[in-house]
Amino acid sequence: MNADHIQVVLVEPSHAGNIGGVARAMKNMGLHRLTLVNPKTFPAPEATWRAASAVDVLEQAQVVTSLDAAIGGAQFVVGTSARERRIPWPVQDARHCAQRIAMHSEHEQVAILFGREDRGLLNEELQRCNLHCHIDTHESYTSLNLAMAVQIVAYELRMHAIAGTTAPEEDADWDTPFATSDDMARFYVHLEQTLIDIGFLKPEAPRQLMPRLTRLYNRVRLDEMELNILRGILTETQRSIDSSNQSE
User: Fold this and answer.
1) Quick one: fold of 3-171?
2) 110-143 pLDDT, tens per residue?
3) Which of 33, 129, 144, 243 has an alpha carbon 20 to 30 Å from 108's alpha carbon atom?
4) Mean pLDDT over each residue of the chain, to the nearest integer
5) How many CA atoms lie within 13 A of 220 on its CB side?
6) Does 43 sit behind a cis peptide bond, omega within 30 degrees of 0 on the bond before it?
7) pTM listed for this prediction
8) Architecture label for domain 177-247
9) Residue ranges of the domains in the chain?
10) What is the predicted pLDDT for the residue at 85?
11) Which of 21, 7, 13, 19 has the alpha carbon at shortest distance from 112?
């Protein structure tokens, strides 16, 4: 595991104390890269005293205004989710997610997303993820404090670090870097417009087509060359449509 390649991303945290608690949980387990997306209050005294001896994690935290800015350079994105979704996504428990994160972090930039205290991550935010992490709580009380959720995932990562988890063979020897979240976001915009252009996607009745295609490509994980090939196919498809329209 390479902790330098792992960032913990808190999306719109509303309580400064939770941010401090997250910083402490991270430092306990050897993580140090914290990104805050539109925090309600930060910096704040409550965050500082809750962080205890992890103030350095707070001081180095990156504050951004959008999820795109937070995960744009990430090649493997994990989103934490407590709810079942209309369209099922690849989901694993914290222990197996930590194994995947630890392995991918050896050669890739990894982001772990934690949502708002009151409603978690939105569907469109979860659709930016390659994998969903579910912490299996007791059915009598399923609500987890934000810092507690981060602590659980960070602990599992620490266990894999101690065990010396190595990268999966198929990824370790891959010949081309995997596409970043930013590149994939642009691809999905291009893909959607092309599908509209050829009449396959009807904006007035999308039929969950784009979420399902997003799930497909996020599950497969494209490298940079594969993504360029697909973008080239989309571009040529659009040119062909334009030529046909002009000749009519």
Assistant:
1) Alpha/beta knot (3.40.1280)
2) 999 999 998 899 989 999 999 999 998 888 888 8
3) 144
4) 91
5) 12
6) yes
7) 0.86
8) Orthogonal Bundle (1.10)
9) 3-171, 177-247
10) 59
11) 7
